[in-house]
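Z., the sequence and structure:
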Amino acid sequence: MTPTLVRRHLPSSTPPGSRARDWAEIQERMLVPLYEAVYERLEVGSGTRLLSLGCGSGLALLMAAGRGARVCGVDRDGRRLELARERLLPEGGHGDDGTRLGLGGPETVLDPAGPCFNLITAFDPLFCAGPGPRGLAEAISRAAACAEHGSPVVLAGWGPQERCAASGALRVAARLADPMCAPARWRPSGRDDLENLARQAGLAPDGSGRVSCPYGYADMTSAVRGLLSTGAFDAAARATDEEQVTKELIEALHPYLRGDGTVWMPNVFRYLIARV
């Protein structure tokens, strides 16, 4: 890509609050096919009591509530969580239906007097509840301890690398964050990564599926803002600078820029259903 075209799509530096809004308005919807497939398979409805780990700005919770489920969610990004509150708790506090949102781990939404959960989800493959996979396994284990025996726990991750166009962009993030590790440090979920995570959390795998979740953007600027909002590029920006990250991200996205100016990146996500 020529320098002129790169400069054309360079967005101005955005503060963290704007990144959260970009997530809610641009990026979060990319996982809607995943949410729908899981909810349909598990027949989420009025009898469902859902806890979402890494609930983001609440779109998946809103969709479950629309099916009649009682929902709770936690996230470690306070700005995203504020947007979730705007969607789910417009009056503030807790919802009359038991809706709770907490900053941190699952313990922030537990109600000793209330019913335990019968569905737990961790949809966002970039969600990190602690220092690495071990922290996530511990968070899942704590949440599972508050669920009914036999309840499903849904974990999600990237599909095969050759079927995930976003992998090229994420390799840019990994390379710039730590050049000594080379581009191969990042990879989509391996074949058994979700199963291993479930076992680390003390759960028994019980089925899986794959869902097409293309990343579609109105233009290159929206694509850059959406991907930067995931947080996957934060370490790269700290190691270099945001302009360098944006420049290389645009170059990685250029093969997916279509004639009408839209950006289309086919991806496949995989989910695992485990049991408490």
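The radius of gyration is 19 Å. The first helix runs from residue 3 to 8.

Let me know what you think.
H.
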